[in-house]
Amino acid sequence: MWMIRQSVDYFFRVLDFLIIARILLSWINPNPNATIPRLIYQLTEPILAPFRNLFFRFGFGGGMIDFSPILAVFFLDIVRKLVAGLL
């Protein structure tokens, strides 16, 4: 049981790391065709898109700063705690 909980924790840590990496990549604006930035964008977009759409729906989207990664990290932390609690 301990290994499953540890694996779930690592999974969510990797997701957090990928979201932070995406934030940092948005600051330096790398070549979008490069392998690593493209992989990071492909892995994080399914997580960030619903939160970005939520901001647009309530009229907060489209600005210079994208707050969807912050909301996604908070949401993922809640989900991680719920899953860990169930295990």
Automatic annotation (TrEMBL):
Coiled coil: none annotated. Pfam families: CCB3_YggT. GO terms for cellular component: membrane. Keywords: Membrane, Transmembrane, Transmembrane helix. The chain crosses the membrane at residues 54-76. Belongs to the YggT family. This is YggT family protein. The lineage of its organism: Bacteria, Bacillati, Bacillota, Clostridia, Eubacteriales.
